[in-house]
Amino acid sequence: MGNFLVFIAGILFLAGILFIKPRAKQDLKWKTVLNWTLYVVWYAITGMGISFIYINSSVGHVKATSTAIFLFLGLSLVLAIILARLLGFLGKTQKNIDTSAKA
Amino acid sequence: MDRRKFLKAGVASALTAGMVGAMKALPAEAAEAVANASGPQNGAKSKLHPKVDYGGATVKFVEHNDQWLGTTKIVGTVKNTHEADQGFYLANRGKYSPEAQKGFYHYHFVMKHPFNNAIASFALSLSPEQMVSGKPSPEKLKIPDPEQMSQHIKDCAYFLRADEVGIGKMPSYAYYSHKAPSQDDLMKDDLSNSIPVTERLPYVIVVMIDQHLETMLASTGYDGISAAQSMRSYHTTGVISVILASYIRNLGYNARAHHFTNYAAVMSPCIMAAGLGELSRTGDCTVHPRLGFRHKVAAVTTDLPLVPDKPIDFGLLDFCSVCGKCADNCPSGAITHDRDPVEYNGYLRWNSDFKKCTEFRVTNKDGSSCGRCMKVCPWNSKEQSWFHTAGTWIGSKGQNSSRLLKTIDDMFGYGDEQIEKYKWWLEWPERYGLPTNH
User: Which residues of A touch B420 (CB under 8 A)?
Assistant: First the structure.
């Protein structure tokens, strides 16, 4: 089971790379690096969070589970929003679509 | 030679050296080398348990000499103590309160719970002198390789279901000066029938058994199951030590088992000498890097030729000096909040109030005995997992990182929780009072 979950996590990580690749490259190199770094950090925190919550809830550590949901998933959500904004999934994309519609 | 040729020559040399090395090593030796690379190895390597599991802690091997027993500093002459001067026997002798004397008499504080009684009564059957010691066989096995014999003894212990085994140089001060007389003599505070301990054997084999994680997670630490957790490990280590000692005597060497119902030595220095723990804030209990407080031990002293393990240092002194979670949670307030260890009987330790500790354990009306310090300690308050491994790695890296581990441990609520789904035992609170007779 553990090996299967690691395999799934690896597949999802690669799928995420393929998904953001078209949007990750920016004019400035530091922006491209920032996008990829944020993706890796977001994935690591989300993965650790899910693992931490799963193990703690299955053992029965109630406070650890609820604190981890708040902490890890909260961090994951904030990072996901920032990353989505930088990649143009939020806000920027809408603007692009509007511009192209006018053109 | 240009740069490209130089690099090519370097790579070719490295490959050649690697291939020659690989051809020289037999497959078994190569496998052994890989296995050895997987973790630190202390003393002889067991075949049944080749990977020494210290959890996540970074462990260093340290010295055992006249100034140090592992990380415990020896600052003077450590005197051999009388068994009757340890906490429970002081209660028995009436040196504490009359309630404590009643609570300890015939181990009432354990026996009052029927399950604890069942385990402890079995452990008492291991107490007669003929169980723990005897004459060695006249036919002596020749032992040309003490390391091989050490490996064999470790494998014997693992075969007999020990969780951890260590071999140490026996510190002479770990022996009691005298064994306590009978409980009836102790009730009269008459020590005239004490038995002098004259044995001085060079090695000690220590076997360790886990006190059971899930049970500890469900317990308050001082309810009905508390004494049973100790008894679980005491009776099992007792059985292993008695069998090991008997086996060694059958090989023609002297051996004496020391276990819960018949000690001739104090266990903490033996544990440290055998590389199975460091002395903790409680003052008399040791912590193992993986099992933490959650263990009990028994030992075999012997003159069988062995190769001793080294004492270990995994940063517990730094950790205990900043954590103090056991002291914060001790229901009797017995564990000291002092920042640093102080001198006691020629060595440095944290000096807990053993009167308070003993009084609480033998008169506890909420259960049977107490192990709250064990329950809350961050080293053992959770299951083995990547984050516990990471946590103990952090905790073994000095005071600042220990402070961080303690903060994280508190933030996630580990240690002082009771996980009801594991509560499997019977409580019988009507029996938890003091006996009416005596």
Answer: 60
